[in-house]
Amino acid sequence: MSYRVEERADQQRHEATATVLAIEGDRVRMRYQRTDAAAEPTEQVMTTALNNVVNGSDGSRYEPHLDQLRFPLQVGQAWTTEAASTAASGAQSRLSIDRKVVAIETVRVSAGEFTAYRVESKGWINGVNWRGAAMRLEQVLWYAPEPGRIVKLESRVWRNNDPFRHTVIEALGFQSN
C-alpha cells in the first residue's frame, strides 16, 4: 500500500510505501520506505487488527500495542488506549487516548472513494521525549472494511497549548501480490 504523508506544520509532503514481509501469528511485519529519501527502509510491525507495535516512520515501540481499532467496529463504540512508548533513541513516554467510533461515512482519497468508519481520538502523551511537557493529541482516522485498511488519518499535536504537529496521511493505492 502506498500513502501520501503531509506534515502541514512544516509544510512538507512525501510518499511512503508499506510492503508486507510476513504474517506471524497475530503480527504483520512490513517494510516502510519513504519514496523521497535515500534512507534505508525501516520495519513496521502491526497486529492483524492494524494496531501499531513498532512504528515504521520513527521506530517507536509500543507496549502494549497502540490500540487504534477494536473489531468488530460499531458506531458508538468507545475505549481507552493506555500504552508505553520507547523511541528509537531510547526516550520513553506514556500515552492515554480515548477513542470513539462516531459514524460511518464516505471518504474520498487519492486511492478512491470508500465507505468508512470514522474513529475520533483525544488524549495525552507524557514523558521524557519532551522534557516532561505533556502533549495533547487529537486524531481522526477512517477505516474502510473494503479494502480492510485505514484510508485516511489526520492527527494534530499541541505542546504547551502551542500547535506542534499537524499530519494528514491518505491512501494512494493498494497492491496485492
What attributes characterize this protein structure?
YmcC-like fold; 12 strands; globular; mainly beta; 67% strand
Show the helix and strand layout.
Blueprint: E1 2-7, E2 12-24, E3 27-34, E4 42-47, E5 52-54, E6 61-66, E7 78-86, E8 92-109, E9 112-127, E10 135-144, E11 149-159, E12 162-173
Antiparallel strand pairs: 1-2, 1-12, 2-3, 3-4, 4-5, 5-6, 6-7, 7-8, 8-9, 9-10, 10-11, 11-12
Low-confidence stretches: none
Kindly state the number of beta strands.
12
Mean pLDDT: 87
What's the CATH C level? Mainly Beta
CATH architecture: Beta Barrel
Q: Find the structural class using helix and strand composition.
A: mainly beta
What is the fold-level CATH name, i.e. the topology? Answer: YmcC-like fold
Total number of distinct structural domains: 1
Distance between the termini: 11 Å
Individual helix count:
0
Radius of gyration (Å): 16 Å
Query: What overall geometry do the principal axes of the alpha carbons give?
Result: globular
Task: Tell me the strand percentage band.
Answer: over 45%
What is the helix fraction of residues, given as a range?
under 10%
